[in-house]
Write a structure and sequence with these properties.
Length: 308
């Protein structure tokens, strides 16, 4: 798959000495949805700001569709649409005028049909003559997306796009992202909402304290690092795990009323364990399984890094 964005050795150290970003190497593929996960202050926005030319890197290079983001800033920036966290619009301007102005800023010729389609896709066409200050918070967020799409970028950055919006609007935005990808747009999403990445991403990057901890296909990551848990409700509580079950990843919970078996997707021996319980005369009344979410994996990765 073609690489549309390449980040090589990019770091950021401010004049105060604060290291906001350690050297980052990252390639983004054409047409993918890439989710960059990390807690607040991890370096997500700093990295995006460097890629988009808002912040100057201390070291490294950014290449966008073959254009060096520092030496050929205009060409690189024209390929990128950015939806920032904060509202950055003229509150007394209309929706339609704001989006048209954004298109002109990037040197694009007027195209009323394209602008209309963008606004319709975002359910903003009926609000085209409304002043932005008259819109709800969710509609203002949609205007930011329309501005970012106004010049037909190949790459769209969504920096914490659903912060402060309700669940219904968040799901609408997920649908929009999938529609954009279907049209060929490459999307980079930063978020600390794990469910957002789990819902949308093809690949996941984890950043913490300015360092990229991991980059992996989402499905492969969940298969490799995801754990499963089976809770076996016992008919008779136990004081301790029987010696015959030593070597199994089992533990007691709920004051000995539940036997918990932890395993990965490639090392599942549930039937063997249940048969073993039968041999030992251990009765049970219920079974419940739980599969790790991307959030579980993320927390585990960050905790492991902190402990290292």
């Amino acid at each position: 798959m073609d690489v549309v964005l390449s980040v090589a050795g990019v770091s950021k150290v401010y004049a105060s000495g604060q290291r906001a970003l350690e050297p980052v190497n990252l390639d983004i593929r054409r047409g993918e949805i890439f989710a960059l996960l990390g807690p607040n202050g991890a370096g997500k926005t700093t990295l995006i700001s460097i890629i988009c030319g808002i912040v100057t890197p201390s070291t490294g290079t950014v290449t966008v569709l073959g254009h060096d983001a520092q030496r050929d800033f205009r060409s690189a920036r024209r390929a990128i649409g950015l939806v920032p966290q904060e509202l950055s619009v003229d509150m007394f301007e209309t929706v339609l005028a704001t989006v048209k102005f954004s298109r002109r800023l990037f040197g694009r010729a007027p195209d009323n049909a394209y602008v209309e389609q963008v606004l319709r896709d975002l359910s903003l066409w009926d609000k085209r003559d409304a002043k932005i200050r008259e819109l709800s918070g969710g509609m203002k967020r949609r205007v930011l997306i329309a501005k970012a799409l106004s010049h037909e970028p190949d790459i769209l950055f969504l920096d914490e796009p659903t912060v402060g919006v309700d669940v219904a609007l968040r799901r609408d935005m997920w649908k929009l992202v999938h529609r954009l990808r279907a049209k060929g747009t490459t999307i980079i999403l930063t978020t600390h909402y794990i469910e957002e990445a789990e819902e949308m991403a093809d690949r996941v990057g984890v950043i913490d304290k300015g360092r990229i901890i991991l980059v992996e296909d989402k499905a492969a990551l969940m298969k490799k690092l995801g754990k499963r848990r089976m809770a076996i409700t016992l008919q008779t509580p136990m004081a301790a795990v029987p010696s015959a079950l030593e070597g199994w990843s089992v533990a007691l919970d709920d004051e000995g009323k539940t036997l918990v078996y932890t395993f990965d997707s490639e090392n599942e021996h549930i039937p063997i364990l249940l048969a073993k319980l039968g041999e030992l005369g251990i009765g049970y009344s219920d079974l419940e399984t739980h599969k790790s979410s991307l959030e579980d994996i993320f927390v585990d990765l960050v905790e492991r890094k902190d402990a290292a």
